[in-house]
Write a structure and sequence with these properties.
Blueprint lengths: L2 E5 L4 E6 L4 H10 L5 E6 L5 H13 L2 E6 L2 E6 L6 E2 L1 H6 L7 H8 L1 E5 L12 H9 L3 E5 L2 E5 L7 E3 L5 H11 L5 E5 L5 H12 L3 E3 L5 E5 L8 E3 L4 H14 L1 E6 L7 H9 L3 E5 L2 E6 L8 E2 L11 H9 L4 E5 L9 H7 L3 E5 L2 E5 L4 E2 L2 E3 L3 H11 L2 E2 L2 E4 L2 H6 L3 H7 L3 E5 L1
Parallel strand pairs: 2-15, 3-14, 6-7, 10-11, 18-19, 22-24, 23-25
Antiparallel strand pairs: 1-25, 1-26, 3-5, 4-5, 7-9, 8-9, 11-13, 12-13, 15-17, 16-17, 19-21, 20-21
Bound molecules: uridine-diphosphate-N-acetylglucosamine.
The site of uridine-diphosphate-N-acetylglucosamine has 20 residues, from helix 1, helix 5 and helix 6.
């Protein structure tokens, strides 16, 4: 099994190129099931989750060809098999987003029910309720959800919570429905606006994506197009946190500061200096950061995916910070690993109280999910001795070249087999 070895590092200096957003790329790839023809997608990160989504598209009957490291050519011959098997859904929960497009295009879809993960249970009731309001019917048996419908009909859908996946599934179904769909209390993440712009290039009419009301006029048919995926704000946040922890000054080339407002504000309060420029984002930390309190919220609030990095930063900041998780109740598991590295953190329900220490202490730790794994890597930059992050396969699900990039910024980090 591979392991990542990190020794105390910093200050970091240099440029890092931000890849395309995983959470946009996966949905744009799923949306290729809506139309026949050959799609050309660029700015696609070279990560395990993209390879899993490619496998899923191939199992549906499409062909996926890597043109170069970050571009894919996807051909949809039509007449797809409308089934997402358990073997793939189990490995990547985001596979559920093929449900909406397959139903809209083929009038049926069979998708394995995603189980829980390290964040705790992740239900899909809002996805199903929204699709039912468009006319789909569902039965669940043998671990699969079986959906069927005549042509879907537009409807007004009010989401109980601005779920990213439910908004995307409903949006991808509504583009081929008969009439107008309005999604109220829609999720507003930049990746949803990116998916909508892809759908609009294909011939859809989606208005308001990126706000909490999305209006979709259904059309009869869509076509294959080219698209470049938006930069990954969570990847950018990872390198920003590395500087917050190890000190230094770097350029996040290609990052979209306008997608990261609240994070920039928070780390500004902690004492980091940040500036947006035409190339992306410049970030600098030249002293120990100050602790702040923060709570995760749907966009434009502080993303739950940023939280592991913020907790790692607070672990070595001056003072006490209280972090409240409002999206995924179980998303604190990596904290036990940080505690093994000498962090002073107490959790109570969905709150964590973090008392900053001057330095952490290197230890063997395990990466339980993508962002938690990356947070342990950046925390280790400030840990005396050596930190060994075991089983980095979770990190590979969401990061292209995390080790190489940190090393090029001056971190003492290697990956061993
Ligand atoms: C997406 C992102 C994930 C991010 C999350 C929140 C992808 C591949 N993943 O996940 O990285 O952390 O958004 O920003 O894009 N919920 C229900 N019923 C549902 C759907 C969701 O109760 O039908 C709950 C979830 O359990 C969770 C909350 O709603 O508590 C938010 O989940 P959601 O926004 O749907 O997250 P995902 O789309 O799964």
């Amino acid at each position: 099994m591979d392991r990542i070895i990190v020794k105390p590092s910093g200050p970091l200096h240099g440029d890092v190129e931000i890849n395309g957003a995983k959470n946009s790329a996966l949905k744009v790839m799923a949306a290729c099931s809506l139309a026949e023809g050959t799609f050309f997608l660029t700015n696609i990160p070279d990560i395990t989750d993209v390879r899993l989504m490619s496998e899923l598209l191939v199992s549906l009957g499409m062909t996926v060809r890597s043109v170069d490291t970050n571009s894919l050519e996807i051909t949809n011959p039509g007449n797809l098999t409308a089934e997402a098997p358990y073997e793939l859904v189990e490995k990547m929960r985001a596979s559920i987003v093929v449900l909406g497009p397959l139903l809209a295009r083929y009038g049926k879809a069979r998708v394995a029910l995603p189980g829980g993960d390290d964040f705790g249970p992740r239900p899909i009731d809002m996805h199903l309720r929204g699709l039912e309001m468009l006319g789909a019917k569902f039965a669940s048996e043998h671990g699969y959800i079986d959906g069927h419908c005549e042509r879907l009909r537009g409807s007004r859908i009010v989401l109980e919570f601005p779920s990213v996946g439910a908004t995307e599934n409903i949006m991808m179904a509504a583009v081929l429905a008969d009439g107008t769909t309005i999604i109220e209390n829609a999720a507003r993440e930049p990746e949803i606006a990116d998916l909508a712009s892809f759908l609009n290039r294909m011939g859809s009419s989606v208005l308001g994506a990126g706000t909490s009301t999305i209006v979709i006029e259904g059309v009869e048919k869509l076509g294959a197009v080219e698209h470049a995926v938006v930069p990954d704000r969570i990847e950018a946040a990872t390198y920003l946190a590395a500087v917050g922890i190890a000190g230094g000054e770097i350029n996040l080339v290609g990052a979209r500061p306008d997608h990261m407002d609240m994070l920039c504000q928070k780390v500004g309060e902690m004492g980091m200096r940040i500036s947006a420029d035409s190339n992306g984002l410049w970030v600098m930390a030249n002293k120990t950061l100050k602790a702040v309190d923060l709570a995760t919220l749907p966009y434009p609030g502080i993303a739950t995916d940023y939280k592991p990095f913020l907790v790692a930063m607070l672990a070595v900041s001056e003072g006490v910070g209280i972090v409240t998780e409002n999206l995924f109740s179980g998303r604190f598991r990596y904290i036990d690993e940080l505690i093994r590295m000498g962090a002073d953190i107490r959790t109570e329900g969905h709150h964590a109280v973090i008392r900053g220490v001057e330095n952490l202490s290197g230890a063997p730790v395990r990466a339980h999910d993508i962002r938690a794994g990356a947070a342990l890597v950046v925390a280790a930059l400030r840990a005396q001795g050596q930190t060994e992050i075991r089983d980095p396969s979770h990190i590979d699900r969401g990061y292209e070249n995390l080790v190489e990039n940190l090393s090029s910024l001056g971190a003492d980090i290697t990956r061993e087999n």
